[in-house]
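#data-curation
PF: Archiving a pair of folding outputs for the training set. Convention for this channel: one message per protein, sequence first, structure tokens after, nothing in between. First:
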Amino acid sequence: MSVIARQDQIKNNGNRFRTRVIHIGDLKIGGDHPLVIQSMTTSDTMEIDQTVAQTKQLADIGCEMVRITAPTVQDAEALKTIRDRLRADGYKIPLVADIHFLPAAAMIAADYVEKVRINPGNYADRKLFKTREYSDSEYHEELERIHEKFKPLVLKLKSLDRALRIGTNHGSLSDRIMNRFGDTPEGMVESSFEFAEICRRYDFHNFCFSMKASNVGVMTKAYRLLVEKQRERNWDYPIHLGVTEAGDGEDARIKSAIGIGTLLAEGIGDTIRVSLTEASVKEIPVAKAIAAKFPRDQELRSIGYSTVEDSKPVPSSVPEVWMRWNGLENLKQNLKQTDLRPDTIYMESLGEDLDEIHFLKTQLKVLWGKVIPKLAVKEDSSWTSDEKTRRRVVSAADYIIKSANSDLKGDPIFFVESIETLKSLENIQPSQIVFNWKASGESLDRVINASLEAGSAFVDLPLKAIMIDGLDSEEALRLSFGILQATRRRMSKTEYISCPSCGRTLFDLEETTAKIKSVTQHLKGVKIAIMGCIVNGPGEMADADFGYVGGAPGRVNLYVGKDCVDRNIISAEAPSKLIELIKTNGKWMEPASL
């Protein structure tokens, strides 16, 4: 069987997951309705003027739904004033109350907003990180306890004709779920379904799901599993997509485009949010750019994902970054201008460059090969010495090289330039494939296009290498390494897991993130979580080496993995304390030593 899933073995059968239509006020999502773009205010909800102003700004640039946090009963009550002010000024945009920990706040918010978002990991639970074995009867008792806490909200939402999002976060699964299912996509789906079953018990169906994670691989697996499990039950509830705690800058845009775009390409998703550690208005252009690539009536363009149980595991290796040869002087200049270095320089022919090979091979790995034109035939499965019959079982590679030196050990390398080409390859190992993306678009569009094409490929397949053409080498290398980092195929720099700000945030997230980056961005492969509050912090840091989490106003808690090792540090002292913690745990290196 091919390591690239055959289309008749893909569980989603190449069809969009067509969901029922639900309504959030006058706005409809699901079915054939266009993708809905949403965001969240970052102000303290009790700062009503700021919250109203931010909501207007978001609506004015094309946001179609705005979420506002309501961490307390007082915040929930403030939603009435916020809504009334917006409506008086002609803004009809639907509002969503974001609820964590406090069912009482949800009950109040339901009176004033079109939709309530609850987190099944903490709506009826306090996360204590306790290990406990549950018998079946004890587990059932826990579910009945959840039922009693959640039932009043379900009945109220139904009576008021409101909508609900059951929003699971990888970082805040309940102890009950963690002990039975672990910190897994299965646990995420099960957590949502516990609450969905209660909705269904009372014939309430105006709800949707989300399965957010900061790790793109976990996020895509969770959403795919959500669709599979919905299909098994003949459910069809809409799906909200997002990569949570994506961070800021280009890396966050790459990560968001890969996670959201991979799923949209597979026909999964009805509404999206790009979560940036930046002003929320900056999320909308990125979300629009992603959504524009996926009109609802377009043909699906995904690789697909194998769910064949007897398929053999694909060996994984660290992918390389290739750069096309552009002359010795250009190469020297390129390497001076950036700290990022390609693993391999690819030359299509030796030409007159033989005298330069010695220099190159002292600096970088060099491969050169004879290009064999695009194949669209199927003949024998071996390479022969006869040029006329040098063919392999392949539908259509964009081009193929046969090594002229010993580094490739005679194996052919298949270059592909698009997901469509990748889908057509048969009986070819990922270790033989170089994804050669041809740059297109301007600025942000280039980042989105590269992420949607090359990034989506690396989510599921351990390809040999990535090579980007059509850009100056600094941008090409930055994008290449960024894509591999976002898909966790290769860690080449510090990984930051930082949440978007909201009304719960206990410090200035943009400023703090920038400050921590300025002193830690040289720590290759170290993962640092910067979280504004404890809602997702400890859990989302399951994937991080160190955590910097708001614990109280003006105070920070520091973590190593999931363990809190220092509490209530004064915010001004916390960055230096973090550096001390990194040093104590042997992860520090001085910038000058790089």
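PF: Second:
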Amino acid sequence: MDLQTMTYLVVGASFALYIGIAIWARAGSTSEFYAAGGSVHPVLNGMATGADWMSAASFISMAGLISNMGYGGGLFLMGWTGGYVLLAMLLAPYLRKFGKFTVPQFIGDRFYSKTASTIAVICLLTASITYIIGQMTGVGVAFSRFLGVSNETGIYVGMGIVFAYAVFGGMKGITYTQVAQYVVLILAYTVPAVFISLQLTGNPLPQLGLGGNMVGTDVSLLSKLDQVVTDLGFGKYTTSTAGSTLNMFVYTMSLMIGTAGLPHVIMRFFTVPTVKDARSSAGWALVFIAILYTTAPAVAAMAKMNLIRTVTPGVVMQNTDPYTADAQIKYDERPEWMKRWEKTGLLKFEDKNGDGRIQYYNDKTKSDAVKAKAEAAGWKGNELTVNADIIVLANPEIALLPDWVIALVAAGGLAAALSTAAGLLMAISAAVSHDLVKGVFAPDISEKNELLAGKISMAVAIVIAGYLGLNPPGFAAGTVALAFGIAASSLFPAIMMGIFSKKMNKEGAMAGMLAGLFITLFYVFAHKGIFFIKGTDFVDMIGGPNSFFGITPEAFGAIGALVNFGVAFVVDKMTKEPPEHIQHMVEAVRIPRGSKMVDGAH
């Protein structure tokens, strides 16, 4: 059986499983549609949360980013993992005790204002729609490579699959589908990692293999990788950082607090029966997430090593000078995996010096020695461009693993993208149908009509998500990080103040959310060249790229959060305190034991 047929079978079987689960678990009430009836077991909810959490960014892009950036890429691991811990410890149990299953509903009730709820919906939609662009892009990448169809066709198929199990199943269908998707994606991520770790280090555990010696040598994998990448003009793998120390810190904080403010993950904690179960499922989710997140650094380093070993044969094991002709492969003799990935456009070769060989190095290096070696060898610049998104997906092919492993990785990448997309669509649907339609425009709507509104809004959201995947905005690069920044600057401070500050009033919360959202979007759009004044790119008027102390747009969410907090507290001091019953409600929500849910009605 050839690879293409194997891939169709594995991916097709996974899709059939998802649709079958959706039919079995279809929602029959608003409670099942929005919160799976609050009856999901904590362990299963932990698995579903893990799938919801580990998006295309985690599965497809994270290891690729670490592979490209080296040590500096660790900020994604620290930010996303730290954010989950923050969410699980400081937010989820209190929100679960409050009893409202959407973030806008919590903000509307806590800040006793439908306007506050509406602003929260706007913030939620902005973050979720930005985030979903990355998921649909991931679907397109996986489909275009593994199923031999165009990127556009892949997105259409992905839309159809999500529609089948999200619209009809709601949160109930999504939850049990995500359990299956977690199993698929974690096997797809760890099985190839075990194979490759054995190949390179002889250790079946990638986490230990990363720190071990290469097979047949007394040289550690990381030491060898440091040597090879520096020879090619790249920064030392184990010490390279992402810009300034300040930017790395702020970037990590932005991902961390943005993670804690993501509404589609928060909603997962309302699907279990009790507050205790919410805490338990948070713990289980961390275990399930850790399996992938502790494997990612090993996957990144080993993929980098395999890529260099493919392009410059003999360099890794025999210390051959990479700038000599016999160290590089001829383009006509490139391996099959390169030919397959070239068709996607995510791997490109340009023969700049016309010698028919692939020269791969950092032609922007500051090292005079590297430049001198390259020029002496007749090189005229780097000739191989490798998109970070292919590192995980191509890794099994680079390592010549069995076809069934490659097919499994395809199914895993699609599972990661589709599971998070479904969670985001559920958050968008709930915000529109429950928080806007029922909460603001039609409070007396029947349960049947609210359920219908939820399904219609989700269907519309799927169409919008597909359109954005097919026609991403000009500033779509880094959209996942931008989504976290938007959530960090708008929703996270409002949730934190809503739980831990009984004196925070509606005026302060609303002003803070708007200020945080506005300044973050302003900074991002300015740096992406969206603003023009008299024909001049506005970014030039604020000091050029990264003008604010060298902070990149993707990292600005943490600064936006500080603005949110600052504006909220200033406005709060200038306006009257919240009503007495709201302050009692906030106190009651934080009481750990012995109290019943308080809804603010008295």
